[in-house]
Design brief:
By secondary structure, the chain is α+β, with helices and mostly antiparallel strands. It is 42% helix and 20% strand. The model has no long low-confidence stretch (mean pLDDT 82).
């Protein structure tokens, strides 16, 4: 349906963005500007910096204690890799909380 309505280029972009979210978050660095913009329209945007501060500021998490609990449970990943501590993020990345909550850091 996307190909019929928006064309083959947009269809390829949507497939690539969906793959980044649900298949393998490590491919986020392979997205072009249009695909990052497409993704930014669908999920929350978080600015560069200390991850817990930025997620809290954007209301992606409710508190720093929630962030710590999620880390301990292995429920936070950055570009498909689980993280075990609060880190600084300075490149375009996908943050995943739980199974289906995403944010883009840019």
């Amino acid at each position: 349906v996307t190909k019929i309505v928006h064309g083959e280029y947009r269809d390829d972009s949507v497939k690539k963005v969906t793959g980044v979210l649900f298949d393998d978050n490590s491919g986020v660095n392979q997205l072009n500007q249009d695909e990052v913009l497409l993704l930014s329209n669908e999920i929350p945007i978080v600015t560069f910096g200390l991850l817990s501060d930025r997620l809290l500021q954007s209301e992606f998490i409710a508190s720093k204690s929630e962030f710590r609990r999620l880390l301990e449970a292995g429920a936070i990943s950055l570009n498909g890799n689980r993280i075990t501590e609060d880190i600084e993020v300075f490149e375009i990345s996908i943050v995943k909380k739980g199974k289906n909550s995403f944010a883009i850091v840019k």
